[in-house]
């Protein structure tokens, strides 16, 4: 009975961890990534006329409303990279098993 309780608790902690990572990744996609894109673009290509940090955020959020794939990739990108890393790690662990 104790082992099943411990097993359920470990699964609950796993879900809580996954939810926390998802929330952090989505917060980064919504809040940090558009700013990083703006600063990376303006430092490498230079600022163009009318460009502003607020304009980038506005463009990303309006793109979400309009169904722009680019906007959704920006927002969901950090979580997608986490899932890709997790899948690759799982694949490598399966490949490392002896036959």
Structural account:
By secondary structure, this protein is mostly helical. The chain has one domain. It contains 3 helices and no strands. The longest helix is centred in the first third of the chain and has 44 residues. It starts with a helix and ends with a helix.
State the helical fraction.
Answer: over 70%
Strand content: under 5%
Overall SS class: mainly alpha
Helix and strand element order: HHH
What's the rounded overall pLDDT mean?
A: 86
Instruction: Tell me the number of strands.
Output: 0
* Overall outline: elongated
Number of helices: 3
**Largest sheet descriptor:** none
What's this model, at a glance?
The protein has 99 residues and is mostly helical.
What keywords describe this structure?
single chain, 99 residues, mainly alpha, elongated
Topology:
Blueprint lengths: L1 H44 L7 H14 L2 H27 L4
